[in-house]
Design goal:
The complex is a heterodimer of chains A (about 675) and B (about 170).
Chain A (H helix, E strand, L loop, with lengths): L5 H25 L4 H20 L3 H18 L7 H19 L6 H18 L13 H6 L9 E8 L11 H11 E8 L17 E8 L3 H8 L7 E7 L4 H6 L14 H4 L9 H4 L10 H26 L4 H24 L1 E3 L1 H18 L3 E6 L4 E3 H22 L3 H6 L6 E10 L2 E8 L6 H10 L11 H6 L22 H10 L3 E7 L3 E9 L4 E9 L2 E6 L3 E7 L1 H6 L5 E4 L2 E7 H4 L10 E8 L2 E7 L1 E9 L13 E6 L5 E5 L1 H18 L1
Parallel strand pairs in A: 6-8, 13-21, 16-18
Antiparallel strand pairs in A: 1-3, 1-4, 2-3, 5-7, 8-9, 9-11, 10-11, 12-13, 12-19, 14-17, 15-16, 17-18, 20-21
Helix pairs in contact in A: 1-2, 1-4, 1-14, 2-3, 3-4, 3-5, 4-5, 7-8, 12-13, 14-15, 15-19
Chain B lengths: L2 H12 L4 E9 L2 E6 L3 E6 L4 E2 L9 E5 L2 E6 L1 H4 L12 E9 L2 E9 L1 E9 L3 E2 L13 E7 L2 E6 L1 H13 L1
Parallel strand pairs in B: 2-12, 6-8
Antiparallel strand pairs in B: 1-2, 1-9, 3-7, 4-5, 5-6, 7-8, 10-11, 11-12
The chains are: A alpha+beta (about 675), B alpha+beta (about 170).
Chain lengths: ~675, ~170
């Protein structure tokens, strides 16, 4: 493994912080007075500033500082949170992202412009006269001293103890003490009570605690700020002492600090950010371990090989009479099955992490287009393979943009059409069999089929007057360079995007369904296989070759009797519970040149509503299939989506269900047209 | 193909070296050589899985240590007749760079001879005329006694052949 690049680590961390800040800001738009959210945003900004400075992103730290300052005043209730402020901070946040990605770039102008907007938002909203928006460079100093701070100074008694490994982790207690000294006059005492005997003393551990009596003109928050980076792990107790009692507190032994101070002022000093209060926020975040994706992939490969070895073992055991061997083999089978399932879960990420990004997009688009939009998300907990999530991000952006730009009407048009002024976009995800279905639905004007047809005819995609099914017509919007937008807007209408959506989804072995009702809205569903690595498959034999059909697509297996077979010559349809199902003879498709088995079987597979039967010679059974991709040299063979290795070391090809169904449907349409 | 391109390819394979370390094998009586550095492994014949619908040049796949790799038959590229496998038949697994990515391919051979060094001095670019094979499929010919060894240009063969044979 390569050693971790600290800058990269910071960028990852920053990306997470941005997400956290952004979602906080957007939440804030719903309820501007929510103190918890304000605190969360402030914390995010503060951490960003701190880590930015630590990793040498000076410009970022300086810029973030101003945002943090502004939010600090909101947090303290000096200025109310407003839509303008949130918008300004959102813009500022985008700028911070730029500062993270290109710290060397020239950002000065943008910085100043955004800060001016930010200060306008904070200053303009100030209700009381005593808060004067200061010129930029001094903003920090002014805001750091709240207007309400007492003139003479307050006395505090601070007792703190850092964790034993604090120094190993890079915390410098002396630095903390120096910072305290800067706040005002202070007396520092070391608490040496826990220093062990020389024999058991670890030279790198920190055994000393401190008690500090501080008289400062800056408030309680200034003290908290000193400890903000270490607060989570340390023991700290801050008590406000009435000035006259300062001497008494000073005289008290350091050990006393551990017991709560009896003063009535304690209530006021109840720490806003002390460790005791933290779990409310911290408890929400489950404990996570960050693992590079490539290590997961390595593990996945190993598990895949184990599954192959295991199926060889069970084949051996199956043909042996040794009961002990069979028992062990069954155990191994169970274990490797569980291991595989656990492994799959490891790679699964809730779709919510993907949907979260769209709140911002919708917010921005609403501002840009002047439409009133409400985004609803459903099924955020649905889990999908991480790779799938990453690759779906861009297509979904295109689809959401399209829904908003093309689908939703402006408010007045909606009212005229008798609809609610607010346009709704619903993003939902659900699991169905071996697929996850992600749907983008809007209640806009729907896809105008006449315009799609006119556009397709004028650009030569279809012949004038060509017969198309409704689905075929709607699918035309995914053709490269296709756009029905009369005007090219900033958002969409350039005709790039929708074909990218289709390509990406197809690369994930998925399918797109489009539904649209004129005047009522449209719905685009992406059906993506749950996983890309291991699937359950049905092993079948065609001629001399073995093939795997993904089990999630299999509907049923039945026997194709000789009469049925003979009767269906030339029309290749069977009647299945009053439905005509087209079927494909794989022996002919694969040109095996072998005579059919006496008792042929038919496997009925489906994607969505479309079904097709596959005639095979023999059904061997289910098989845990580790998907191996086909070589580049075989990319022209579309019938197969991959290959897998069988228990005997041979190779079986995995049938591409989507393609085969399409062939079957085509054949059906063809025959219908002919007959 | 113009003479300059031939010259360029010729220089490319030798890269200013005086000698080239190669693995030699035979196909239908001709001796071929592949740069030893590209050879991954020599295998006994393995059960091949036919890929229906694939080009005849790469008609099958094998399981090579848990990886599924295509099997190619160079005879097709050089217009030779297919022969029955013998006790000497081997699969030579080579690593190629196709479209900028490494790719393992198994080559069917009639017999694998040896790893040897070929001197630069004995090498010649393929003649432009008087040869029944496509000149760009061959890096160079190296004289060896009365006979010669063919160094095929696998990159060109694999990136052009499938399309050609399909047509």
């Amino acid at each position: 493994m390569t050693s971790l690049d600290p800058i990269q680590v910071f960028r990852t961390e920053a990306a997470e912080l941005f997400e956290q800040i952004e979602s906080g800001l957007l939440d804030l738009l719903n309820d501007l007075s929510d103190q918890d959210t304000i605190d969360a945003v402030f914390r995010g900004l503060h951490t960003l500033k701190g880590s930015g400075a630590m990793f040498g992103f000076e410009a970022l730290a300086a810029f973030t500082h101003h945002c943090e300052t502004a939010f600090d005043r909101v947090r303290k209730g000096q200025v109310p949170a407003t839509d303008e402020l949130v918008a300004a901070v959102l813009d500022a946040q985008d700028h911070m992202k730029a500062l993270v990605s290109t710290p060397q770039g020239d950002h000065e102008d943008a910085s100043n412009r955004l800060l001016a907007a930010l200060h306008a938002a904070v200053g303009g909203a100030a209700t009381t006269g005593h808060v004067v928006t200061p010129p930029l460079p001094q903003a920090s100093a002014q805001a750091a001293a709240p207007a309400s701070a007492p003139a003479k100074g307050q006395a505090f008694h601070i007792a703190f103890r850092l964790p034993a490994n604090a120094m190993i982790n890079g915390t410098n207690p002396l630095g903390l003490l120096d910072e305290l000294r800067e706040l005002g006059e202070c007396t520092v005492k070391a608490d040496l009570s826990t220093i062990p005997g020389l024999g058991s003393l670890e030279p790198t551990d920190l055994y000393i605690g401190w008690s500090v009596d501080l008289v400062t003109e800056q408030g309680r928050d200034a003290i908290d700020d000193v400890f903000i980076f270490v607060m989570d792990d340390m023991d700290i107790k801050v008590t406000e002492v009435a000035p006259v009692e300062a001497k008494a507190a000073e005289a008290a032994p350091a050990a006393k600090a551990a017991s709560p101070a009896p003063e009535a002022t304690l209530q006021k000093a109840e720490p806003a950010k002390a460790p005791g209060n933290e779990p409310k926020h911290g408890g929400k975040q489950a404990e996570n371990v960050r693992v590079p994706a490539e290590r997961l992939d390595e593990l996945m490969d190993r598990v895949g090989e184990l599954v192959i070895a295991q199926s060889r073992l069970s084949q051996l055991a199956g043909s042996s009479a040794d009961l002990h061997l069979r028992a062990v083999s069954e155990d191994v089978e169970r274990l490797s099955g569980e291991l595989r399932d656990t492994m799959m879960v490891l790679r699964m990420v809730p779709v919510g992490s993907l949907f979260g990004r769209f709140r911002r997009l919708v917010h921005d688009l609403a501002r840009e287009t002047g439409k009133v939009i409400e985004l609803e998300t459903e099924g955020e907990t649905t889990e999908v393979d991480k790779t799938v999530i990453e690759r779906l991000a861009d297509p979904l952006v295109h689809l959401v943009r399209n829904s908003i730009d093309h689908g939703l009407e402006p408010p007045d048009e909606r009212v005229a059409a008798g609809k609610d002024k607010t346009g709704r976009v619903i993003l939902s995800a659900r699991q169905s069999g071996g697929e996850v279905i992600i749907t983008i639905k809007d209640d806009g004007r729907g896809i105008n089929r006449d315009r799609v047809r006119a556009k397709a005819e004028s650009s030569g995609l279809i012949q004038p007057g060509q017969m198309l099914t409704d689905q075929e017509l709607l699918q035309l919007i995914f053709q490269p360079g296709f756009s029905t937008a009369a005007q090219v807007t900033n958002l969409s209408g350039r005709g790039v995007g929708m074909d990218v959506v289709k390509k990406t989804v197809e690369a994930l072995r998925g399918v797109i369904d489009v539904r649209s009702e004129n005047g009522r809205g449209s719905e685009i569903s992406l059906r993506i296989p749950l996983t890309l690595a291991i699937i359950d498959g049905l092993l079948v034999r065609v001629g001399a070759g073995s093939y795997v059909i993904p089990l999630s697509a299999v509907e049923e297996c039945l026997e194709l009797s000789l009469e049925d077979d003979l009767r269906s010559r030339g029309r290749s349809f069977i009647s299945l519970r009053d439905n005509l199902v087209p079927f494909l003879r794989l022996r002919e498709l694969f040109e095996t040149g072998t005579p059919p088995d006496r008792y042929q079987k038919m496997v009925v597979i489906s994607t969505g509503d479309a079904r097709v039967g596959l005639v095979v010679d023999q059904i061997i059974g289910d098989h845990q299939t580790v998907i191996k991709s086909m070589s580049k040299l075989h990319h022209d063979v579309v019938t197969f989506s991959g290959a897998t290795i069988l228990g005997d070391g041979g190779v079986a090809l995995i049938l591409d269900v989507t393609h085969l169904v399409a062939v079957g449907q085509y054949q059906e349409a063809h025959l219908r047209a002919a007959g | 193909m113009n003479p300059e391109t031939v010259k360029h390819l010729f220089d490319h394979v030798w890269k200013d070296q005086d000698e080239l370390s190669v693995l030699t094998f035979s196909l239908n009586g001709e001796t071929f050589a592949i740069e030893a550095i590209n050879v991954q492994e020599i295998l006994d014949l393995l059960p091949e899985t036919r890929v229906p619908g694939a080009k005849p040049f790469v008609a099958g796949v094998i399981n090579f240590r848990g990886r599924v790799i295509p099997i190619a038959d160079l005879r097709r590229a050089f217009g030779m007749e297919a022969t029955e496998a013998t006790i000497d038949s081997r699969i030579v697994v080579v690593e190629l760079t196709l479209e900028g990515e490494p790719c393992l391919v198994g080559l069917r051979t009639d017999k694998v001879h040896e790893v040897t060094t070929l001197p630069h001095a004995a090498a010649e670019p393929p003649p432009i005329v008087g040869m029944r094979w496509r000149p760009d499929f061959i890096h160079c010919l190296v004289r060896r006694g009365t006979d010669f060894v063919i160094i095929p240009n696998l990159e060109v063969i694999f990136s052009t052949q499938p399309a050609r044979s399909a047509a």
